Structure of Large ribosomal subunit protein bL25:
Amino acid sequence: MSDTLTLAAETRDQVGKGASRSLRREGRVPAVIYGRNQAAASIHLEEKALVKALMTGHFFTSVIMVDGQRTLAKDVAFHPVTDRPLHVDFLRIGEHETVTVAVPVVFTDEDESGIKQGGVLNVTRHEIELVVDAANIPTEISISLKGLAVGDSIHISDVKLPKGAEPAIDDRDFAIATIVPPTVSTAEDEAADAEAQAEGSEEA
């Protein structure tokens, strides 16, 4: 289960692009807290503290106490060039409220699977959306590849989920990953490579 994170916040007296730019120049990040049929609260956070929380690797699966309110991070906007956080959306939640979160998937025991024989793990879902109690959000979902051969697939029905957790998608047994055969170059590929090399030699 993820630890609870705490972020200090101050109320934003002014909103808008100009006010947000001014805050960012001061090392602050604009944010909003919404949900639970309450008015949205405009706040700002210290950028360094936010970045530290983001670096934990489980920012989106942790309960975050912000301005004394229990929240989940729902979205973070980043600068397209510098990757600095520009804005954060937080959703208010109750202590044992049922929430939907995207939990990262981690694969283990690769050496005891068809990967050791040259197979390639083709992951179709790096995260699984789970419906869970807000007090019991898992940090990750661990899936063992032990005993799986090339051609085998892992579906959600094969995964042991934490107690009380249910997949958000419940109308189909969706695939999470497949061990596929290694890519084998064909005669045509080899001929094309040889032709490209020959052309390169002539140009040189």
About this structure: The helical segments are 17-25, 47-54, 187-203. The chain has three helices and 14 strands. The two ends are 59 Å apart (CA to CA).
